[in-house]
Design brief:
This protein is α/β, with parallel strands linked by helices and 766 residues long. It contains 26 helices and 14 strands. Helices cover 61% and strands 11% of the residues.
């Protein structure tokens, strides 16, 4: 009797497993995303299939006879329909997790719908009914309808395998494909067993097993919640430990100067020796200052966390700031064998506008930190600037030969109360607040702070802060820029982007250069080989086919080549100047061109051949006054003319500004409205086939050329004031350089939409 019902064992197992999965999944609160919604449908259809298969198998045992054959034929057709629904749901699930483009997913879903319709029609409209051979109450099926069904399922599985092979390398979570692998293996095993032994129908077991495996590969909300709780717990414990360590450290740090103050004060009261009293009094003052510094640090971090720190911007002398910092650092060095080496750039404006006290506090913390962790050697304090419009970006570099920082400690470096290797540095004074305060204040001022370090060899801190220029200084810079002329010099601009060439030409025309340009490294090499003479070459770095670096290498192989070459690139990261000089460039300029930096480079290149024209000095003061009055009248007239010109183009410019185009910055870069309009037309011409090229590179996974093209788009967009498009292109450039095809595919649509929007705005404007 048991043997007669032995082929019910497998369906029973399927029912039990499917029921357990259903209870487990639906008894918990799930995240409502596409993956869990699809899986919930798969779970339900799996349970239905298991119960239906068990009921059908049991019915065959109990009710099968010649008169019930048609009923069982129809029942078997329903079972096949359930199989079709299950396999199509599984197919849709794998297309969703593949992160393919939407159009591809849509195409696969249409294919699945067509295949489903064909299979359902095959099952229910087939003229040849399924044939049943019953041996010992065991059912099996043959015929065209079942064969077509098996072929359809095989097609589904083949396409799922194909999708996984295409997208698996792009997936971070590869475990989601485990159910597919198990499905392929188990289907082959189940079919093989069924052919050998018809009593063993394991198809229902395979379906329930796949659902069970999928349960552990989908996003598990409970596991995720537990992970978040564990993370919160660890952070809370870490915070508590940090506070405990801080209190312990504070107790020690505050008690040390207090003991000195109290002890020395008692000695002063009882001492009659004036010299000793003076010495003790100096020590009391020193200890008091140390205590005040500790208390101020605690108060500062408290104010920062509660957003109660206000910025107090004033005009200040940059030289006074730097002198104060140098004096303070030398005082801290005292008797240590440390050399403080300073290099303050000469082009830093004399008067700046900003919160000088916050700037001083940031740099004091960094410099004092360098002194604390350096026993001997040197500390380099370098300052340079990049001036643009009314803004002066100060770049501070503090480099020491101290203890250095381990890589695993870098992430915690700017945390409150953190002190690297506290057990080994217990003799070094400090609360662990200095760097945290420096970073917070830097970000508050709109700057950033970076650190490079090699353990045992020293550290380097790079701080950038934006300060404002006063009007007089700004006017002086502008005036100095106009005075420089090089009217007998010939320069060559090498850039693959015509818009970049146009803007560079306009900048260089102010210096009365003779200007030539080419759009590739190959053409540059041809010109030099053809003995064309130039006094200076401006070389773009990122160009297709041959980069600026490769072009320079080829040029240096030409016999007698000694023309200065300046790297011209949008790569404006700190340290790039050294990088490009190391590969053979004479200097480096970042795009968009900055007048001060351009002046500096030109003066460096032509310093032995001074061709700078100075304005004529007026000898007669009265004549000077008359000219000055005339100049004022001319200036007033120019203002009136400029106002009329603005009124003439008021509507057009307002239209651009209403669409978030940074017209003012663009006009500052290109010069005037007429040039700006020409630049917009050139932008349209240069980029008319841009999207086709980008999509081609994505399809071919050619991220190298993709990065070059979006790099060019980034620069062009900046010149015409398309700030958002420029920023999006920058992100794509960085990610494509990192070979992140997933990011490019996922975010390309945003780039495409913003680009089309800008093109539409240009067309409407022009």
């Amino acid at each position: 009797m048991l043997y007669e019902y032995s082929n019910l064992y497998f369906p029973i197992c399927s029912v039990v497993v499917s029921l357990l999965i259903t209870i487990l999944f639906f008894s918990k609160q799930n995240i409502k995303n596409k993956e869990t919604k699809l899986y919930s449908k798969i779970v339900i259809i799996t349970l239905i299939e298991a119960i239906y298969t068990f009921g059908l198998t049991l019915s065959v045992h109990l009710f099968y006879n010649d008169s019930t054959i048609p009923i069982f034929a129809i029942a078997n057709k329903v079972l096949y329909s359930i199989y079709i629904i299950w396999i199509s749901l599984l197919f849709v699930y794998f297309t969703k997790i593949s992160n393919m483009k939407r159009e591809y997913i849509k195409a696969f879903n249409i294919f699945a719908l067509i295949l489903d319709v064909v299979l359902i029609l095959n099952v229910f409209l087939s003229r040849i009914d399924l044939v049943y051979l019953l041996e010992d109450k065991v059912s099996n099926s043959y015929g065209p309808s079942s064969i077509i069904l098996y072929i359809g399922c095989a097609i589904y599985i083949s396409f799922m395998v194909l999708i996984s092979l295409i997208t698996l390398r792009l997936q971070k979570n590869k475990k989601k494909y485990i159910p597919l692998i198990v499905l392929v293996i188990m289907m082959m095993v189940a079919m093989g067993i069924r052919l050998i032994d018809p009593y063993c129908n394991m198809l229902s077991n395979v379906i329930s097993l796949i659902a069970l495996i999928m349960y552990f590969t989908i996003e598990n909300p409970d596991a995720k919640l537990m992970k978040e709780l564990e993370l919160a717990k660890n952070q809370a414990e870490k915070s508590n430990r940090a506070k405990s360590d801080f209190l312990s450290s504070m107790s020690h740090e505050i008690r040390t100067p207090l003991n000195a103050i109290v002890g020395l004060s008692e000695l002063i009261q009882t001492n009659d020796n004036i010299e000793e009293i003076h010495e003790d009094a100096k020590d009391v003052v020193s200890a008091s200052q140390n205590l005040l510094e500790i208390v101020n640090g605690i108060l500062d971090i408290s104010k920062i966390e509660s957003n109660k720190i206000d910025l107090v911007n004033v005009e200040y002398k940059s030289s006074e700031l730097f002198n104060d910092l140098i004096k303070l650092t030398n005082m801290r060095i005292e008797n240590k064998e440390i050399e403080l080496r300073t290099n303050i750039a000469e082009d830093i404006p004399t008067t700046l506008y900003g919160d000088v006290n916050k700037v001083k506090q940031i740099l004091t913390n960094i410099l004092v930190n360098a002194v604390k962790y350096t026993e001997k050697g040197y500390i380099d304090f370098n300052v340079k600037c990049i001036t643009e419009k009314d803004n002066c970006k100060l770049i501070f570099n503090v480099k020491d030969t101290g203890k250095g920082i381990k890589k695993e400690q870098m992430e915690s470096l700017f945390e409150k109360f953190y002190r690297a290797e506290e057990d080994r540095n217990s003799t070094i004074e400090g609360t662990g607040l200095g760097l945290a305060i420096a970073k917070s204040l830097t970000e508050m001022l709109g700057g950033n702070i970076k650190v490079n370090s090699e353990y045992g060899k020293g550290s380097e801190f790079i701080i950038t802060l934006n300060q404002k220029l006063n009007r007089e200084e700004q006017a002086l810079i502008k005036e100095e820029t106009k005075e420089i002329k090089y009217n007998d010099k010939k320069v060559l601009i090498v850039d693959d982007n015509k818009l970049n060439i146009k803007v560079a030409e306009k900048k260089l025309r102010e210096y009365e250069f003779i200007i030539d340009s080419v759009d590739s490294g190959f053409k540059c090499i041809d010109k030099i080989k053809n003995k064309e003479e130039y006094d200076l070459i401006f070389m773009d770095i990122m160009m297709p086919d041959m980069s600026g670096v490769d072009t320079l290498k080829k040029l240096k192989q030409i016999e007698g080549f000694n023309i200065p070459v300046v790297a011209l690139t949008a790569d404006a990261m700190v340290g790039q100047s050294t990088k490009y000089k190391d590969v053979g460039f004479n200097d480096y300029l970042s795009k968009p061109l900055n007048n001060n930096e351009l002046n500096r480079v030109l003066e460096e290149i032509f310093k032995n051949e001074e061709k700078v024209e100075q304005k004529e000095k007026k000898e007669d003061k009265n004549v000077h006054k008359v000219i000055q009055i005339t100049d004022e009248e001319i200036e007033e007239l120019n203002k009136i003319l400029a106002e009329r010109q603005r009124e003439y183009s008021h509507n057009n410019l307002d239209y651009l500004k209403e669409n978030d185009i940074d017209v003012d910055s663009a006009l500052e870069l290109v010069g005037d409205l007429e040039t700006y309009n020409e630049t917009l037309k050139l932008f349209l011409e240069e980029n008319k086939d841009l999207l086709n090229k980008l999509e081609k590179y994505i399809e071919e996974t050619d991220l190298e050329n993709y990065s070059i093209l979006v790099h060019s788009l980034k620069s062009s967009s900046k010149y015409v004031g398309f700030t958002k498009l420029s920023n999006i292109a920058l992100e794509h450039e960085q990610k494509s350089k990192e070979n992140d095809l997933v990011y490019v595919n996922k975010n390309y649509r945003e780039l495409k939409i913003e680009y089309k929007k800008m093109i539409e705005i240009i067309n409407n404007y022009l």
